[in-house]
């Protein structure tokens, strides 16, 4: 929300006072004096007037998890363990998953309480590649790469998938890079050729690569540098 709106929503300031506070350079957001009324204030921002704290700001949290097989990418599930069960963190209900994986898919899962950050990561328009290692039941034929690059029509969503890059590694394995995350997208792409995916592992989302030292089921906080890259 804009800082002028944030301030005038507080019972103590009217709009005229807010204008003056900004002009008089008495407002700080995250330690910086702010005079632009359009400056963005988030739940993570610390907002001060003179030296009085108006909002302390919640800490933004970001984790990288190596998702194991057999767990649900959801915050709650009545039957199965969820990826959040693997996190030993307070206030887990505030966290969400940036790009889910299917029950038996393994690999990189990013979990955060920062909705803007996770949207940048997952929205197709930011065109960040999601890279998967794939194993299949049948051999991967020569037509696959061109078909995936041209895009496949998904009737249920009435859309054509964005160009995807397939690198065949062996007769039954490949690395696939896609820039969307449609429901069961990778399985449906191989399903177009009646080829069942037998193993699916996400290696990378944009610049963020699964940390090799994380065993399945383990996680770590992202570094400041990793957070900034998105
Ligand atoms: N595509 C799929 O089909 N499943 C996943 O888990 C991720 C991408």
UniProtKB/TrEMBL annotation:
Residues 62-190 form the Pseudouridine synthase RsuA/RluA-like domain. Its EC number is 5.4.99.-. It comes from the Bacteria. Keywords: Isomerase, RNA-binding. It holds the Pfam family PseudoU_synth_2. PROSITE patterns: PSI_RSU, S4. It catalyses: uridine(516) in 16S rRNA = pseudouridine(516) in 16S rRNA. One of its GO terms (biological process) is enzyme-directed rRNA pseudouridine synthesis. GO terms for molecular function: 16S rRNA pseudouridine(516) synthase activity; RNA binding. Belongs to the pseudouridine synthase RsuA family. Responsible for synthesis of pseudouridine from uracil-516 in 16S ribosomal RNA. This is Pseudouridine synthase. It comes from Pseudomonas mucidolens.
């Amino acid at each position: 929300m804009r800082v002028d709106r944030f301030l005038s929503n507080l019972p103590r300031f009217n709009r005229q006072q807010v204008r003056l506070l900004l002009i008089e350079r008495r407002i700080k957001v995250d330690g910086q004096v702010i005079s632009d009324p359009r400056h963005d204030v988030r739940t993570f921002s610390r907002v001060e007037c003179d030296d009085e704290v108006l909002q302390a700001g919640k800490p933004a949290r970001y984790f990288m998890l190596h998702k194991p097989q057999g767990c649900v990418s959801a915050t709650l599930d009545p039957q199965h363990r969820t990826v959040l069960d693997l996190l030993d963190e307070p206030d887990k209900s505030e966290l969400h998953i940036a790009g889910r994986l299917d029950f038996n898919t393994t690999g990189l899962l990013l979990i955060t309480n920062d909705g803007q950050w996770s949207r940048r990561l997952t929205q197709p328009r930011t065109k960040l590649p999601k890279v998967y290692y794939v194993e299949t039941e049948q051999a991967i034929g020569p037509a696959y790469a061109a078909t995936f690059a041209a895009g496949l029509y998904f009737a249920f969503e009435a859309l054509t998938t964005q160009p995807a890059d397939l690198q065949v590694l062996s007769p039954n394995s490949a690395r696939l890079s896609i820039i969307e995350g449609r429901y069961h997208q990778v399985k449906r792409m191989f399903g177009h050729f009646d080829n069942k995916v037998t193993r699916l592992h996400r290696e990378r989302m944009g610049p963020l690569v699964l940390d090799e030292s994380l065993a399945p089921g383990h996680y770590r906080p992202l570094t400041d540098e990793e957070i900034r890259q998105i």
